[in-house]
Amino acid sequence: MISRLRGTLAEASFTEALVECAGVGYSVFIPICTYDKLPKAGEEVTLYTVLVVREDDMSLYGFATKRELKIFNLLNMVNGIGAKTALNILSSMNIPSFCQAILSADVKALKKINGVGPKSAERMIVELRDKIRDIDPAAEFAAGAPPAAIDRNTEDAIMALEKLGFQRIKIQKCVVDVASSLPEKERSVENIIRHSLQSLNKG
After folding, report:
1. Which CATH entry fits the domain spanning 66-142: 1.10.150.20, 3.90.1150.10, 1.10.260.40, 3.40.630.100?
2. Is the pTM of this model over 0.85?
3. In angstroms, rounded to a whole number, what is the distance separating the alpha carbons of residues 98 and 139?
4. CATH code for the domain defined by 152-202
5. Among 10, 110, 138, 162, which residue carries the largest CB count within 10 Å?
6. Which overall architecture, per CATH, does domain 4-63 show?
7. Which among 170, 59, 52 has a CA at the least distance from the CA of 107?
8. Helix, coil or strand: residue 82
């Protein structure tokens, strides 16, 4: 496994860098966020890398920071999101904006990315939401997303609405907002569900 390259940057484009290490040139696919951090050709560069092996292809992907690499690896684990789409996501959105979109369940923003449809966007949100909190906890507050810890009654209300056919990624913020707007003594599961349904039906 090639996990890091340190050598001379021979040349680079928005999507690819050629790094020479001990006389060997490594062609590395990169996102634009990494391209922006590259030095001038002829200078030393370090890239954190991952080798992605498919039946008919072996490609090396490189990143300027470990956080970029971690986001790429997480995206690559989402069903339906391959390495090229993961790279495109990192090129289309900066990491704070991506984290905010995941935590606030912003399907509209995610599906604007080439190669990402509504279903792929929803899968990313469901599968990455908790993992993104570990990478960029500050993004949760910037996104206006609900706190990581949801009280028991609110969680029970969300689960009840899911059983009624609502998708969690579409109702969670609404339910949390409704619960926080109610006086503490009125935050029963039944009350939260009733007020949430009123709010959802208005939409």
Report:
1. 1.10.150.20
2. no
3. 9
4. 1.10.8
5. 110
6. Beta Barrel (2.40)
7. 170
8. coil
pLDDT per residue as tens, the chain (203 positions): 789 999 999 999 989 999 999 999 999 999 998 998 999 999 999 999 999 988 788 999 999 999 999 999 999 999 889 999 999 999 988 888 898 889 888 898 898 888 899 999 999 999 998 888 766 655 544 444 444 456 788 888 888 888 888 877 678 888 888 988 898 889 899 899 989 998 887 75
Query: Do 79 and 29 meet the contact criterion of CB atoms below 8 Å apart?
Result: no
From 46, 12, 9, 7, select the one nearest 29 (Cα to Cα): 12
Whole-angstrom distance between the N-terminal and C-terminal Cα of the chain? Answer: 50
Q: Tell me the three state secondary structure of residue 15.
A: coil
The amino acid occupying position 123 is R
- Tokens of residue 16, six digits: 């690819």
User: Of the candidates 81, 95, 109, which has an alpha carbon nearest to the alpha carbon of residue 169?
Assistant: 109
Helix (H) or strand (E) holding 46: strand 44-54
